[in-house]
Structures are given as structure tokens and as C-alpha cells.
């Protein structure tokens, strides 16, 4: 029996039992047999969920790029590591072999070194989905620098906040980016952001769109000439297993974004292991995850997990609707994709279009389909299964988080029988628990509660950059001795898990986590706004859309409401990005509040979802009279 590659259900149960009976020897075996370490660990795991402190493979030394690139060179140097599929289908796809990837990563690493980047320095990467995005993060890892990718759809303010939070001195970007028929001026956004970032002294710019950009003397340089001059080999910096590999920001329910810190050894082991099993990856496969590397899905399952397995991974620059709604399927046919991993919001959008967009392509190469990011509804699941998978491809509904680093709950294709809307069973090593509101574990099946994990797994985030207390308070304080996910879940009669959604003030819109507080902060900056509250409501493509309840100041009362709505959305776009724009805005006289002054979002959620027959207990409200008025004028 191989711990590393599970091939049938019985084997899954055996491996799972072993993994929870003795997690340390389980992960030790996986780590030993499948990875290249420069020095062995002193201990497999040291942990304490109270402090909290978690260390995997402590004392071990490695470089993750040796595992993702160098060790493949001898056996699969000419194999394609990355297929780059550009936004414009008329532009040729690029096939980058492992040998070429090695050379490009080394050159990039040498450029970073020449710019003075050292082990432990943070490098902010604000690049579109072009090969340099993957190459630059691997280059950081090559020299032990900590990458922090900011999704290139975030606004200049959001970018500046992240740059300042992690204290980066260098930013990597491009002149612009392509998204469908739009061109975005990324360099201009960086220039705006840097007005608020005095610590940044270097900006390296990759040419992509060829649009004219301003290059600030002494700060900005084009990357190409530097790469041309760079030496094509770079000795990897050997780091401790617990050396930070990257920081990736995720929204919190309150306050600033949280810079989740992932470290090297455990992250590598867990993402590689789950990639292999969840996608049943085999040597000749072509795997495609449509996420952006600006999100955790792209980090773990476009770059690190696939490359650690010597896989061929597709990077797609474009969008599913350009040049038409058949683009995904055209790319599947063109590259003979075997595993396809996307988000429910994309499936829902495509399912609304003519079926010809799907049927005109040959999708027979597909073996496994995946989804991630939000609950998938039954209708979308069936459409995906029937029309994309032709009822032959198991769907892996993978549940996980930026904080978890890798997939925690998912079917194993060809082993776990799937069930629409269920993420099904925990991965080996993962011990889920459902908790009630009083902090007690709910045992048995056919129950629901708050989803926690009882025991550490190798890729759990180790801290929040610069704020360990917030890390403890957010994830380890709600339920003693457990990691709290912020999600609700139910366990059915056979023990399958279904994720029911967030139980905190994070709202998932089109698969993107958005905290209510930062959006409210942006709105409240409007001079006419006194107070606001954001809630989610069901939306047939985005999953959730945002509904804003806004109280105007007396001075704002006379203003044109339509203009105000535009200005509010403009502020949100500036502060966070267009993904956080509100679908509906209602101006209200007051907001339902508890006696302690907290907004009762539960009631607003019901109003936004048009579910006002039973508002539940409103007796604890300070101002029950406002509710009627809000309902009457709701949109
Ligand atoms: C949600 C994305 C239901 C969940 C990898 C989680 C899901 C949040 C699923 C994390 C799924 C992710 N079914 N809900 N298969 N996958 N979620 O950090 O609420 O962007 O807490 O990580 O997305 O989002 P994040």
C-alpha cells in the first residue's frame, strides 16, 4: 500500500485511519519518500493550538525549487512544465519545459539578487497571469525571499496596504495586462500605490501590452535587459523547513487584510500530496486550474503542487467569456486537458449560455473535474457533470482556505463516490469536528455545526504577518484547542461533509472572500454617508452579491441618489477593487442594532434575501421600529 497515491476507496480508509492514528509517522513517511531534503528534520511535528505554535519537519533544510524543478531535470527535462495560454487565442501558446523553467527561474533569481534582494526579504508581485508570475515567485523561493502576490485586480489602495503591511522594498509588475477585450494599466496602478509606500525603492517591469508607461528614474527598470544579462544558473539558498515561503493576504471579517504566512517544508509536502491524490495526476496528464496565481488556489495548485509532482500545468491569461463563452472548452480541446479545476461562479455563468459553446469542442481528454472557492449548487454541479464531464468524470468539490494552504476535504476521484454539493471526506491527516455554539463537539452523523479542525496538518498557515495575536484570536480562540475555519458544515448519514457557508462576516462573491468591514470603511469615507452595513444575498451567477444599507448624514439627504450610488461604488473600487462593488444600495433611516450597539446583520441578511416572513427574535433590538421601514423600501 502506498501512502502517497490512493487508488481505491478501501485504500483511502486504510490510509486515513493510519494518518490519524499516528499523523507524525504518516507524514514522515510521505516526506521521506517523495521529496528532496538537504538535511533531515529533528522532529516531525511540534504543536500547541493555544499559543498557537506549529512546526513541521523542524530542523530540516531544503529549497522548494529543487523539489519543483531541479530534481525533474534528469528524468523529465524536456517535458513541458508550464503551458501558457494567452488571453488572445490568436497569440501562440508557449510551452516551457522543465529545463527552460530552470533557466528562467535562475536568471530571474539572479536579477533579484543583483537588485539587493536577500533571504527573508519580502517581494510584492503584482503581475497578470503571464509566465513571469510563476517564474518570479519561484525565483523568490530560489533565493529564500518571501513572495507576496497581490491579485492584479486589486486597486492601488489595496496594493499599497499590502506592500506596507509586509514591508516590501521591491515590487514586480508589468506595463499592463489583458483581460478579454480590455487592457489594464497595471503600471499606473502601481505608480499610484507607491505614492503611499515610501519603503519601496525598486520596481521591475515586465513588458506585456507595450502601452506607454512612465518609468521613474532611479526606481523603475525594465526586466528584459536585466534578464538578458543574468547568469542562467543560480545556486539555491537552502532554508529551514519553517522558513516563510510566502505571505498571501485574505480578507478578515474586521479590519485590515490578514497576511497569512506559509512556510516551506510542510506546505510543499501537503500541496504535492493533495495534488497527486485529489486530481489523480499521472505523468502524461495535462492539468489546468483556471484560478489566478493571485489567490491561494493558484499558489498551491497551479505552481507548487503540480510542479512538485513534475506535472504539466496550464496557465491561462484570459477570461472564460473571451472571445466567446466557449473559450474554456476550446483550450481543453487544444491542449488535451485531463484535469480541469475551476470555480462554481464560472460554471454558473457558462451554464447560462448556449450549449453549443460546449458541444462544439472535443472534451474527451478530460478525466477529472474540480471546483473550489464556494459551495456549488446542485444545478451547476449537474450541468458540469453532464455537459463538461459527459457523466464520465468524477467532480471533486474541494473545500479549503487560504489559511489551510491545501485542500482539506474532497472526494478522491475513482475512489470516493461523489454526491452533488458535498465536499465528502477529509483528506488523510485531516480531523474535522463540528462544534455547537457552546463550544461542545457534536458527535455522530446527520448533524450540523461550526467546522473546526482538531489537529495540525503540514500546510496550515503559521501566523499572520506581524500580528500573531490576531492569528490566535481569529482561528484558535473560538473553540479551545481547535482551528476554527469560520465555515458552517453538516455531516450526512454516511459522514460526508457539506459546507454550508461562512458563519462570520466574510461574504464570498464569485469565489472571492470579502470582509464586510473594509467595504463599510470605504463607503463611510463618502462625505454624505453617516453609517453603512453590508450583507450578502443570493445571486444566481456570483453565488452571493452585496447589498448595502446606507444611512446618510443630514447634509447628504438632499443629494441625487443615483449619483450617490455611483460615487459609493467608485469609492469601493478605489479602496478594494471592482470585485467588491455593491449590486444593491438602499438608503435607510437607521440600522437595526442590539442594545450594545452592534448591527444585527442577521435581520439585514433576511431583508436582502427577501425572506422577511420570519425575522426571528427582534426583542433584543434597541430600535425595532426601523425594521418595518427598511423592509418597505427594500429593493
Ligand atoms: C469557501 C479558497 C464550499 C469557504 C481555496 C472557505 C468553499 C472560503 C469551498 C475560503 C467549497 C472554499 N465548498 N465553500 N468547495 N471552497 N470555500 O481563502 O467559505 O479564498 O472558508 O480559499 O471559501 O476562501 P479562500
UniProtKB/TrEMBL annotation:
Family named by the database record: Belongs to the ATP-dependent AMP-binding enzyme family.
Protein name: Acetate--CoA ligase
Keyword 4Fe-4S: no
Organism: Flagellimonas hadalis
Record EC number: 6.2.1.1
Domain of life of the native organism: Bacteria
One Pfam family linked to the record: AMP-binding
Swiss-Prot/TrEMBL keywords: Acetylation, ATP-binding, Ligase, Nucleotide-binding
GO molecular function annotations of the record: acetate-CoA ligase activity; AMP binding; ATP binding
Domain Acetyl-coenzyme A synthetase N-terminal: residue ranges: 12-68
This protein's encoding gene: acs
Domain annotation AMP-dependent synthetase/ligase: ranges: 71-461
GO biological process terms on file: acetyl-CoA biosynthetic process from acetate
Domain named AMP-binding enzyme C-terminal: residues: 519-598
Amino acid at each position: 500500500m502506498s501512502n502517497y497515491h490512493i487508488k481505491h476507496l478501501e485504500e483511502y480508509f486504510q490510509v486515513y485511519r493510519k494518518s490519524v492514528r499516528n499523523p507524525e509517522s504518516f507524514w514522515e513517511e510521505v516526506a521521506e519518500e517523495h521529496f528532496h531534503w538537504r538535511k533531515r528534520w529533528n522532529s516531525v511535528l511540534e504543536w500547541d493550538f493555544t499559543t498557537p505554535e506549529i512546526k513541521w519537519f523542524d530542523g530540516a533544510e531544503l529549497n522548494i525549487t529543487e523539489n519543483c524543478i531541479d530534481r525533474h531535470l534528469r528524468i523529465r527535462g524536456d517535458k513541458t512544465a508550464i503551458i501558457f495560454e494567452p488571453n488572445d487565442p490568436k497569440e501562440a501558446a508557449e510551452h516551457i519545459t522543465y529545463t527552460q523553467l530552470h533557466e528562467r527561474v535562475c536568471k530571474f533569481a539572479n536579477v533579484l539578487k543583483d537588485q539587493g534582494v536577500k533571504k527573508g526579504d519580502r517581494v510584492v508581485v503584482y503581475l497578470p497571469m503571464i509566465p513571469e508570475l510563476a517564474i518570479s515567485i519561484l525565483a523568490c523561493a530560489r533565493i529564500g525571499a518571501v513572495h507576496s502576490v497581490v491579485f492584479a485586480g486589486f486597486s492601488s489602495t489595496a496594493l499599497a496596504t499590502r506592500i506596507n503591511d509586509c514591508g516590501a522594498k521591491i515590487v514586480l509588475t508589468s506595463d499592463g495586462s489583458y483581460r478579454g477585450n480590455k487592457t489594464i494599466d497595471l503600471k499606473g496602478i502601481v505608480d499610484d500605490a507607491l505614492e503611499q509606500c515610501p519603503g519601496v525603492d525598486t520596481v521591475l517591469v515586465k513588458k506585456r501590452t507595450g502601452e506607454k508607461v512612465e518609468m521613474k528614474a532611479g526606481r523603475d527598470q525594465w526586466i528584459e535587459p536585466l534578464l538578458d544579462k543574468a547568469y542562467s544558473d543560480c545556486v539555491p539558498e537552502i532554508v529551514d523547513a519553517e522558513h516563510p515561503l510566502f505571505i498571501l493576504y485574505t480578507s478578515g471579517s474586521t479590519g485590515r487584510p490578514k497576511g497569512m504566512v506559509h512556510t516551506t517544508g510542510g506546505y510543499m509536502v501537503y500541496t504535492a500530496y493533495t495534488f497527486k491524490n485529489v486530481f489523480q495526476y499521472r505523468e502524461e496528464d495535462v492539468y489546468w486550474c483556471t484560478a489566478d496565481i493571485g489567490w491561494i488556489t493558484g499558489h498551491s495548485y497551479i505552481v507548487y503542487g503540480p510542479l512538485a509532482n513534475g506535472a504539466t500545468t496550464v496557465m491561462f491569461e484570459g477570461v472564460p467569456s473571451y472571445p466567446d463563452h466557449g473559450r474554456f472548452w476550446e483550450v481543453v480541446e487544444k491542449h488535451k486537458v485531463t484535469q480541469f479545476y475551476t470555480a462554481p461562479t464560472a460554471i454558473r455563468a457558462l451554464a447560462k449560455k448556449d450549449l453549443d459553446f460546449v458541444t462544439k469542442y472535443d472534451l474527451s481528454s478530460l478525466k477529472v473535474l474540480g471546483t473550489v472557492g464556494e459551495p456549488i449548487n446542485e444545478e451547476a454541479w449537474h450541468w458540469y457533470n453532464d455537459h463538461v464531464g459527459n457523466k464520465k468524470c468524477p467532480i471533486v468539490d474541494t473545500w479549503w482556505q487560504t489559511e489551510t494552504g491545501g485542500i482539506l476535504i474532497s472526494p478522491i476521484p475513482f475512489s470516493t463516490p461523489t454526491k452533488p454539493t458535498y465536499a465528502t471526506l477529509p483528506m488523510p491527516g485531516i480531523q474535522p469536528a463540528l462544534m455547537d455554539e457552546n463550544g461542545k463537539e457534536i458527535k455522530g452523523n446527520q448533524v450540523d455545526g461550526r467546522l473546526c479542525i482538531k489537529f495540525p496538518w503540514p500546510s496550515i498557515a503559521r501566523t499572520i504577518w506581524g500580528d500573531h495575536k490576531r492569528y490566535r484570536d481569529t482561528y484558535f480562540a473560538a473553540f479551545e484547542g481547535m482551528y476554527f475555519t469560520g465555515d458552517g458544515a453538516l455531516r450526512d448519514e454516511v459522514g460526508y461533509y457539506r459546507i454550508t457557508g461562512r458563519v462570520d462576516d466574510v461574504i464570498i462573491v464569485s469565489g472571492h472572500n470579502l470582509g464586510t468591514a473594509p467595504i463599510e470603511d470605504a463607503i463611510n469615507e463618502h462625505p454624505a454617508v453617516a453609517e453603512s452595513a453590508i450583507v450578502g444575498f443570493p445571486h444566481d451567477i456570483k453565488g452571493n452579491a452585496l447589498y448595502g444599507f446606507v444611512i446618510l448624514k443630514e447634509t447628504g439627504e438632499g443629494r441625487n441618489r443615483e449619483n450617490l450610488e455611483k460615487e459609493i461604488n467608485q469609492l469601493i473600487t478605489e479602496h478594494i477593487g471592482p470585485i467588491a462593488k455593491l449590486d444593491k444600495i438602499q438608503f435607510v433611516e437607521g440600522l437595526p442594532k442590539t442594545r450594545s450597539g452592534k448591527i444585527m446583520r442577521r435581520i439585514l441578511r433576511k431583508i436582502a434575501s427577501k425572506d422577511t416572513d420570519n425575522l426571528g427574535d427582534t426583542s433584543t433590538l434597541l430600535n425595532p421600529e426601523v425594521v418595518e421601514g427598511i423592509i418597505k423600501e427594500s429593493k
